[in-house]
Amino acid sequence: MTGDHDGTTARTVRVLGAPLDLGANRRGVDMGPSAIRYADIEAELAAAGINCTDAGDLSVPRLETSSATSGETTRNANYLDEIGQVTETLATEVAGTIDEGAVPLVLGGDHAVAMGSMFGAARNAEDGIGVIWFDAHGDYNTPETSPSGNVHGMPLAAAHGRGEFADVEWADTPAVSEENTVLVGIRSLDDEERVALRESEATVFTMREIDECGITAVVEDALEIATDGVDGIHVSLDLDWLDPTVVPGVGTPVRGGVNYREAHAALELVAERDRESDLLRSIDVVEVNPILDRDNRTAEVAAELAASAFGKRIL
């Protein structure tokens, strides 16, 4: 799918900026792609032996020209029409990148952009795709269950075609099989979201499992589940997966997340498995908010973790 990994042929990664902030309730996350680029993600990827091309940013609707009550099916999914437009555009870009033999690296923007990443990655995947969801949150609400109406809390449910997302025209659902979906490091769920995840076929590893078993064992199990019988996986990395003492520049911080070294170990395991079986179909890195950050620290961590996912190693 993406070339060999024997060291003779460098892999190509195509960076796609998706500066969307309509899915969240705090301004600033639209500057995330610029901040990650400023952290020199191209140099980080080059250190991993990656050929990197940057396709620039998608054109996205701005908050000032959007209506919070838009949406064909509901008033409890803010800016749903506008987010749907971005989703369709991003999905086409992601699918085209994969067809050209490169790996799309989507820089968010809020986590609603993951819908476009997953829909695009699943397109033309005959055996479907799995997902590993590194996040503090489940993002498993639907318009019917969301307490806020913020769509960045819904993308994984959308990819499974749950609730009203089964009937939204732009949602190519289900994009991901529930049994090949693994959430890692979860520590904050809404009540109805918790019920939905328990009833689903997705696997959830909370921070307690990481505390008890260690990050290596958890991620190895996650990779086994996500890759079983599929064409490849999408990795979604929300920076609030890490503890806010490590990454202060996120909109919805939750104490008790993974530390810096655990995060790198997790993404290094993804890269190791990818070298063996060429499984990484796409990745997104989301929820970097420079307004809330200190000295671009969160964006720097985002760039470093992306490089680890593509094979950058200490030795």
From TrEMBL:
Name the record gives this protein: Arginase
Gene3D superfamilies given in the database record: Ureohydrolase domain
Keyword set, alphabetical order: Arginine metabolism, Hydrolase, Manganese, Metal-binding
Transmembrane regions: none
Species per Swiss-Prot/TrEMBL record: Natrialba asiatica (strain ATCC 700177 / DSM 12278 / JCM 9576 / FERM P-10747 / NBRC 102637 / 172P1)
Enzyme Commission designation: 3.5.3.1
Reported cofactor(s): Mn(2+)
Any one GO molecular function term: arginase activity
PANTHER family: ARGINASE
CDD domains for this protein: Arginase
Cofactor binding, note field: Binds 2 manganese ions per subunit.
Binding site for Mn(2+): H111, D135, H137, D139, D238, D240
Family, similarity comment: Belongs to the arginase family.
Pathway(s) the chain acts in: Nitrogen metabolism; urea cycle; L-ornithine and urea from L-arginine: step 1/1
Reactions accelerated catalytically: L-arginine + H2O = urea + L-ornithine
GO CC terms, sorted: cytoplasm
GO biological process: arginine metabolic process; urea cycle
InterPro entries named among the record's database cross-references: Arginase, Ureohydrolase, Ureohydrolase_dom_sf, Ureohydrolase_Mn_BS
